[in-house]
Amino acid sequence: MKREMETDCQREKIQHLIFLRVPISLHMLTPLEAYGSKVEHLPGFQGPLPFELETGYVGLGDSNDDMQVFYYFVKSENNPQKDPLMLWLTGGPGCSSFSGLVYEIGPFAFEIKEYNGSVPSLVLRPQSWTKLSNIIFVDLPLGTGFSYAKNVTYHRSDWKLVHNTYQFLRKWLIDHPEFLSNEFYIGADSYSGIPVPAVLQEISNGNEKGLQPLINLQGYLLGNPYTTHKEDNYQIQYAHGMGLISDELYASLQRNCKGEYIDVDYRNELCLRDLRSFDECLSGINKENILDGFCEDDSRLWRRSLKQELGAPLSSPLTVPKLSCHIYRFYLATKWANDESVRKALHIREGSIGKWERCYTTDFEREIFSSVEFHVNLSKKGYRSLIYSGDLDLVVPFQSTQAWIRDLNYSIVDDWRSWFVNGQVAGYTRTYSNRMTFATVKGSGHTAPAVTPEQCLAMFTRWTSNLPL
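^ that's the sequence the OP posted. Answer follows.
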């Protein structure tokens, strides 16, 4: 109780200083550990953690007790005081950034071996982006991970996620003023390509209005980002280019559907016939990585095609996937996060949630149908951006991303060329006058860092260091 009272007093002191626009220096404050709890050991990992992990909650809403957003914060393993600070959001829509922590860019991952009833094992990820950046992984939207709400009804939507993320970030920085001067970025992938540019615009607008704390926003990076709700239209072109459908079917689709494959008139029987043939051709293909094996549970346990994904809830079946399936790691995560020893180690509040869910299982309201206008506004304000695409992704094909970037009509300052890692081509890149860099990641899928971690770490390192890829 004493520690909680000291925490509240310290928070009020910081907020008062920020409100008065008084420069904050650390010697004016007492230690900040009470805002988050340091985690030194994790069940499943052998020995003490060789990196600094903090977990905690940030209260949102009129009353801090209404909505509690849980986060994992990993300090940079290089120089936390000087290295960038990044907030990471995962797509879904409606999946916790825990996915980014353990599957993509965080310092540890699940060891893929058959579950035997004990806590799943964790191993270090050598290519963690925390080698050079402080990263916040947050359980948003509400209802994912360990976040929870009392006295309020969940309403999950694009704009609700935008506002909650911005409020979370500002409150987190108030609680962690030692990071206010660090360069700040947002990283995200998949469906988060829709809400994240809007979050960035809210941050920029807040800075311009003088809202405290000022956030040292420098830019953003998005992987295989959903952007215009027209991505499905490019799946046909991509599938044909990769030899997944015949020339004849491709020509028929173009002729009968006239380039529109999403909102097809039910009276257009020829187009609907061709789309059924297309679906049959792709029925055994893993759309997130066309070279990876296909599992029957893929579309139900992880992401469906975007057309299906946005029209139905994302749920987790009770069936256990095969060990060889890529999605087995999601099964291990559920076992790990629902273990009482894990919850205790992470300092989860008792009774706050029931079963842990990486992705929530109710509908999500779409309100932003294109994020292109936000990219335009952010470019005008001079923010840097890195947009990258795993080139084996059929869910958001690289052609669809290239199309909306091309429509921005910015001049090219560094034309299409290879970029390399360890002397090998890692992909192709192009840079534009609006400080936007586009890159493909060769041999990678929908979540590129999970498939090609070494290449993606090199890409992230060069970009945040203002070096050409």
